[in-house]
Design brief:
Blueprint (H helix, E strand, L loop, with lengths): L1 E2 L2 E2 L18 E4 L4 E5 L2 E5 L33 E6 L5 E2 L4 E8 L6 E6 L7 E5 L4 E5 L6 E9 L12 E9 L1 E7 L1 H4 L21 H13 L3 E7 L5 H14 L5 E5 L28 H14 L3 E4 L22 H18 L12 H12 L8 H16 L1
Parallel strand pairs: 7-13, 14-15, 14-16, 16-17
Antiparallel strand pairs: 1-2, 3-4, 4-5, 6-8, 8-11, 9-10, 9-12, 12-13
Helix pairs in contact: 2-7, 3-4, 4-5, 6-7
Length: 396
């Protein structure tokens, strides 16, 4: 509890939480005490009796990422909160499911959902029964805005401070996911000017936000390019995580795949598996095996896999001594074999790969002097070049 900027009371939860699990947190404020209920536990703040007006509260999650949704509050006044979809949401299907939570409504009252309020295509649906839900069908491939209003038994909007909610930039368009290592993650991007896409969907730098803008401008409808790069990841990590990544992004139509920089580690290099059939003793655990597993999983889910070639390395690691001749450096001898594997996988008809892999190796072999942040990662200019190359590959 904070009074005038000073912490006057605090209490920790004794039970731990687990990543990727949904929890309900209930907070009750009263003059005598404040209770927090979560993780099967109730904690109480009551050692300080200073009466304050509650303006905000927070629940701190340490060591793990956390986000909060489906938030609702009760103050005795009618309210409505849209809990699906959120702002900047995007899907490919043209039928849109929407939902809201509402409280303190009188008998016969409900929620009116309005899509694209004030536009020629405005559509509204009223639901007077919990859960408050609706489906808007046959939507245009475009950006949309959703409003929700508390309405009375006549369908008229109810006045109040919390009887209206809005979510913006609900896109019907193309959903991409980028998977890979720290290069996909955007390590080394030193140009903040293009860290966020124009539509606000993709943030954090790297090629993803730039690629979103290029595709959206070119195609004339919304896109998102989700960044799922994990620093330090190897192709075997991609293979082990692809099922959960697919489940996390059911709306995705294409996965942009880039692994190999960490596979070429000087201490524990991953064999390429180049030209080896699956029944060869050297095939299991190879780069080829791992990448094939990724492609197979994406195809089995009805999505498209797009592979790219591994960029050139200028040293054994990001802060090491640079290679005198990069093409003959330890990592690049392996990386060139990995890239041959990429070519072979892309050429295999059963893999159904229709996008020619962008050749980041050959490009950065020429332009690394101006487009690398360190010996392994592109800088801001380099990530923009990656976006340009992905764009050319995806649209040719």
């Amino acid at each position: 509890k904070v009074v005038n900027g000073i912490v006057v009371d605090r209490a920790p939860f004794l039970n731990e939480y687990t990543q990727n699990i949904n929890y309900q947190i209930t907070i009750n404020f009263s003059l005598n005490q404040t209770t927090f209920e979560a993780f099967g536990e109730v904690i109480v703040l009551n050692t300080d009796s200073t009466i304050i007006t509650v303006s905000s509260f927070e629940a701190e999650a340490r060591q793990q990422d956390a986000y909060y949704d489906n938030i609702f509050y009760s103050s005795g006044e009618p309210f409505v909160i849209i809990n699906q979809p959120s702002s900047y949401y995007l899907q490919g299907a043209t039928d849109l499911f929407v939902a809201a939570i509402a409280g303190n409504l009188q008998a016969g009252w409900g929620v009116k959902f309005v899509l694209d309020l004030g536009a020629a295509e405005e559509v509204s649906i009223i639901d007077v029964t919990e859960p408050y839900e609706a489906v808007f069908t046959d939507l245009a491939i475009s950006e949309h805005v959703l409003d929700a209003f508390v309405v009375d038994d006549l369908g008229d909007e109810v006045a109040g401070t919390a009887t209206h909610d809005t979510t913006i930039r609900i896109g019907i368009g193309d959903y991409y996911v980028a998977i890979g290592d720290s290069i996909t993650n955007a390590i080394g991007d030193d140009d903040p000017s293009d860290d966020s896409s124009a539509d606000g969907r993709n943030t954090g730098g790297g090629y993803e936000s730039v690629l979103n803008d290029l595709l959206t401008t070119y195609n004339g409808y919304p896109h998102t390019v989700i960044n799922k790069g994990i620093p330090g990841a190897l192709s075997v990590d991609g293979a082990s995580l692809i099922s959960s990544t697919l489940a996390e992004h059911p709306e995705a139509i294409r996965f942009l795949v880039l692994y190999g920089t960490n596979d070429s580690d000087i201490f524990m290099p991953v064999p390429s598996g180049l030209d080896l059939p699956p029944d060869d003793p050297g095939y299991p655990g190879s780069f080829k095996d791992n990448m094939q597993q990724i492609v197979d999983a994406i195809n089995a889910a009805g999505k498209e896999a797009s592979l790219s070639k591994v960029p050139i390395a200028l040293a054994d690691y990001s802060a090491g001594e640079p290679y005198e001749n990069p093409s003959e450096g330890f990592k690049n001898i392996l990386i060139q074999k990995y890239n041959d594997v990429i070519d072979n996988l892309a050429a295999e008809p059963t893999n159904e790969i229709i996008v020619i892999p962008p050749d980041f190796y050959s490009y950065f072999e020429i332009y690394y002097a101006n487009e690398y942040f360190d010996w392994l990662h592109p800088n801001g200019i380099g990530y923009r070049s990656m976006a340009d190359m992905w764009f050319q590959a995806l649209t040719q």
